[in-house]
Each structure stands twice: as structure tokens, then as C-alpha cells.
Automatic annotation (TrEMBL):
Alphabetical keyword list: Lyase, Metal-binding, Signal
SUPFAM superfamilies: Phosphoenolpyruvate/pyruvate domain (SSF51621)
Signal peptide location: 1-25
TM helices/strands, residue ranges: none
Name of the protein in its database record: 2-dehydro-3-deoxyglucarate aldolase
Annotated organism of origin: Pseudohongiella spirulinae
Alphabetical list of InterPro entries matching this protein: Aldolase/citrate-lyase_domain, HpcH-HpaI_aldolase, Pyrv/PenolPyrv_kinase-like_dom, Pyrv_kinase-like_dom_sf
Length: 314
């Protein structure tokens, strides 16, 4: 009887992610599914959200989206609220069913700090509670992109061939390790593809004239995972409507540079232009915004069009 009880208890702990050994013996499993999809050569589709309710977290976790951009640039900055939202996205039923701790929908947080600001303390707090990526708004130079990457990285072991850019993130991995379900969190908590085994996405937003002028420096900064064009802010920076040909030419120039350097590029889309953006070479587009409780009808339509056009049936 005692043996049966212990066996049952161990099974429960394994499903809950508390029995470390069987869950951690999965070094070949990508924890960041968006990176896995990009490595397979497929585009990933996401959504901006500023709704941090538990209902929204649960709905988005099962939405068939690849990633969520949790927008703390234009909403209140609250680490407690963010932590609750991230925990709300944890789908234990899915973890138990698939047998490993990969999240189907990747949580990425957009900072309130622009590229010219010092983001280090924000980055540290966001990553320490378990986010799988950070989006940096209004990045305008390679130097700003470099500072962002360094804030996301731990200092590397002596002799590492990817020691640069030198990381400045302090060590406190306990909560993030628990959230990821990874005993080797410190080894995996690095920017991809600089570290091929890294699970963190460092996303730089180009949304100004100066950012466009320095786009190649930003894109080629070691440790940058993806670039995201912000058409609304870019058009304001240029003093033109977003539909103006000069704005569209600037956007086209950025995505061409991303293709040249094999860096995924993102932009906001809608059902009318998603096919064109995919054909243009965007691999990291969003298909909706905000999400009141899950995804709206138009977002679901856009996601369906995007996945069909990209040949995604996973």
C-alpha cells in the first residue's frame, strides 16, 4: 500500500512539474516553440495584448498563436501583474499531454523604455520571472541594440566562443527555472541565434527615421533575434501617413536587410495585407492587437489566412 501511494504521489509531482529528474531529461526539447518554428524555416504569428486578466492568459495560451507580445510600453508597469499573467498562461494539461514543458505560445514582453533609455533593471526583473523574450521599442542604433542584448545575457563561462557581447544580467534564476521547468535554465537563458541553444528572443523595434538609417547596424548586432518595424511610429517620425509610398519604401528597405542577414522581421498586419507581407519576407508578423479575452473574430480570420498562406498546419 505504501509503495502504491508513493508511486501515485510521484506521478502527480511529475505532471505538476515538481519531480525534476524525468522532466529535465529533455535537453533536446526546445522550450521556446517560436524559435523551433523559425528554425524549421516557417514564419511565426503573434498578437499584442494589454489585457492581463487570467481569462485572457488562459485563452491566449490555447489560441494557436505562436507568441504573445505582452505590452508594458503603453500599459501600467507592474511586475506582480505580469507574473500572474505568465502563470495564467501555464497550461499544465498541455504539459502533461505532450510530456515536456514547452509552452505552445511564447510570452514576450515589450518594455516601456526606449532604446536610448537604460533598460537593464527592467530586463533583469522581466527575465527573472520567466519571460521568453523582450521587445525593445524605438531602437535607433547598433549601440542601443548592443546594450539591450547585454542586458539580457548572463556573463558566459571562461573560454566560451560566444562570450561577447558580454552579459551584465545578475544571477537569480530560481523563479524563472521553476517557470520554465528547466534545471539548466542558466545555460538556456541566452539570446538565440547567437547561442544556438538559447531560448530567449531579443526583439528590436525600428520605428523612426534614425532607426531606418541605422537598420543594418541594428540587424547585425550580435545577439539580436528579430527586428520589428513599427509602422505607426515610423510614419509619425517621417511626418507622413503610413500608406505613403516613402513610408512603405522605408519598411521594404528594412525587411530586405533582414532577409540579407537572415534575421526574422515583424510588422503589424490585417486580413487585407497579411499575404503581401508574408510574400515580402516578413517572418515575425502580428495578426491582431490587444485581445480582450483571447482573440477577436478579425484576428482569428487573419491568423487562419496567414497559416494557410504559409503552409502551416501544425
Amino acid at each position: 500500500m505504501k509503495k502504491k501511494c508513493l508511486t501515485a504521489l510521484f506521478s502527480v509531482l511529475t505532471v505538476a512539474g515538481l519531480a525534476a529528474t524525468p522532466v529535465m531529461a529533455q535537453d533536446d526539447v526546445r522550450l521556446n516553440r517560436s524559435i523551433q518554428t523559425l528554425e524549421n524555416g516557417d514564419p511565426v504569428f503573434g498578437l499584442f495584448t494589454g489585457n492581463f486578466s487570467l481569462a485572457n492568459a488562459r485563452a491566449l495560451a490555447r489560441s494557436n498563436l505562436d507568441y504573445i507580445l505582452i505590452d508594458m510600453e503603453h500599459t501600467a508597469w507592474s511586475m506582480e501583474t505580469l507574473q500572474e499573467f505568465l502563470l495564467g498562461m501555464t497550461d499544465k494539461m498541455a504539459v502533461a499531454r505532450q510530456g515536456h514543458s514547452q509552452m505552445r505560445t511564447t510570452p514576450i514582453v515589450r518594455l516601456p523604455a526606449n532604446g536610448r533609455n537604460d533598460p537593464e533593471w527592467m530586463v533583469k526583473q522581466i527575465l527573472d520571472i520567466g519571460a521568453f523574450g523582450i521587445m525593445f521599442p524605438y531602437v535607433e542604433s547598433g549601440e542601443e541594440a548592443l546594450r539591450a542584448v547585454k542586458a539580457m545575457r548572463y556573463p558566459q563561462p571562461r573560454g566560451s566562443d560566444i562570450a561577447e557581447p558580454a552579459g551584465v544580467r545578475g544571477s537569480s534564476p530560481g523563479v524563472a527555472s521553476w517557470y520554465w521547468g528547466a534545471m539548466d535554465y542558466v545555460q538556456r537563458a541566452d539570446t538565440w541565434p547567437l547561442n544556438p541553444r538559447g531560448e530567449l528572443l531579443a526583439v528590436m523595434q525600428i520605428e523612426s527615421v534614425k532607426g531606418v538609417e541605422n537598420a543594418e547596424d541594428i540587424i547585425t548586432t550580435p545577439g539580436v533575434s528579430a527586428v520589428f518595424v513599427g509602422p505607426a511610429d515610423l510614419s509619425m517620425s517621417m511626418g507622413l501617413p503610413s500608406s505613403h509610398q516613402e513610408v512603405q519604401d522605408a519598411i521594404a528597405g528594412v525587411v530586405e536587410l533582414c532577409k540579407k542577414h537572415n534575421v526574422p522581421c515583424g510588422i503589424t498586419t490585417n486580413p487585407r495585407d497579411i499575404r503581401d507581407r508574408l510574400d515580402q519576407g516578413f517572418l515575425f508578423p502580428t495578426v491582431g492587437y490587444w485581445g480582450d479575452a483571447g482573440i477577436s473574430g478579425s484576428t482569428a480570420e487573419n491568423l487562419s489566412i496567414a497559416r494557410e498562406h504559409a503552409g502551416r498546419d501544425d
